[in-house]
Amino acid sequence: MFVISRIIWFASATLPALVLFRGFRTRTLATYSYFSIYVFSACAGSISLYLVWIERPDAYSRCYWGAQFLTLMIGCGIVLEIFRHVLRPYPGAEKFATAVGLVTFSAIFAFAFLYRLLAPDWSPSGTVIELERDVRTVQAIFLFGIFAVISYYQIPIGKNLKGMTAGYGLYILTSLVTLAVRSYAGPQFNNVWNVIQPLSYDASLLVWVVSMWSYHPNPVPDAAIRLEEDYEALAARTKRALGTMRSRLAKAGRT
User: Fold this and answer.
1) For every residue of the chain, which 3-state class applies, written as one string?
2) Over the stretch 98-154, which tens digit does the pLDDT of each residue have?
3) Could you say which of 7, 14, 93, 174 is the most buried, measured as most Cβ atoms within 10 Å of its Cβ?
4) What is the CATH number of domain 2-219?
5) For 49-100, what is each residue's pLDDT tens digit?
């Protein structure tokens, strides 16, 4: 198990460094800024945790859960990155999707912070695991939604975005399954979870290394896509519905 842990750690440190190196060579770090920040934080976190494990093993657990919380929060930027690039030609839909994502993720992390302050039985490991389950669930819903939009409107996407989405989707799916099994099986599943979780992350990194090796922008659609028109129509219907609701509430208040 010790050898396997060393191999997993080595891959978790070197693969993101390779992704960042290729991003620097192809000058795509700024193009995919949220993604680059996440990969950099994950690489720095892996190296820092290894040094803590060597120098201060008594502080490893506290630093581990702190690093997990930080990378989980930064990882939400990958979902926003996917929104930004898939929906860039459709500014109304992009703004709406980004706003919904920001509000939802902010609410989840705000609740976790308040729970830490108010709950008498708070523990770092329990809170981060519950937070990860909630965040991964929301991320999975958002990714499923963007998949549905891409499929329905036949939006073409490039190799970079396909790999980014597939790699992160694989990691989210594996995390949700292992978290569910861990919740059912209890602490005896921890040893298996401690291997499967980082292995799925390394698998995602391999997908990113291959897909992000060179720059592949999203292709231009061959035909007109009505996503923006559909969004504007939906927004107009929503405004009319809200206006009607306000009018009825105002009339009810005067009676």
Assistant:
1) CHHHHHHHHHHHHHHHHHHHHHHHHHCCCCCCHHHHHHHHHHHHHHHHHHHHHHHCHHHHHHHHHHHHHHHHHHHHHHHHHHHHHHCCCCHHHHHHHHHHHHHHHHHHHHHHHHHHHHCCCCCHHHHHHHHHHHHHHHHHHHHHHHHHHHHHHCCCCCHHHHHHHHHHHHHHHHHHHHHHHHHHHCHHHHHHHHHHHHHHHHHHHHHHHHHCCCCCCCCCCCCCCCHHHHHHHHHHHHHHHHHHHHHHHHHHHHC
2) 888 888 888 888 877 776 666 655 555 556 777 788 888 889 998 988 888 888 888
3) 93
4) 1.20.1070
5) 777 777 777 777 777 777 778 888 888 899 999 988 988 888 888 888 888 8
